[in-house]
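Worked problem 6 (solution included).
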Amino acid sequence: MKVYGDLEMSEPTKFFLDGHPAAFIRTKAKVNVPMKGLGTGMVLYGAQTCVLLEHRVVCWNVLSSDQARLGPLGPLLAGKVAFSGRPGQAWAPVH
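Solution. The predicted structure is:
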């Protein structure tokens, strides 16, 4: 997100995802320099979830220009992940 401009990040929210330690971070960046499809002054919102699986860290990111889509109940954060055939777990904390 830093490539877009001034970056703001939340403190990581620690939680467990299917028994594995995980962290969730929200970000916000204001575009300083026009880039492909992005105009100066536009605000981008992001979220990253990372989980520790044995000796590996697995992360995934979501990026949107619409903050509501990344809200706690937004459609981009409504995903679930399943490890080793177990039932799906919400991959971001709801608070």
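Discussion: The beta strands are 5-9, 13-17, 20-31, 43-53, 56-64, 80-81, 89-90.
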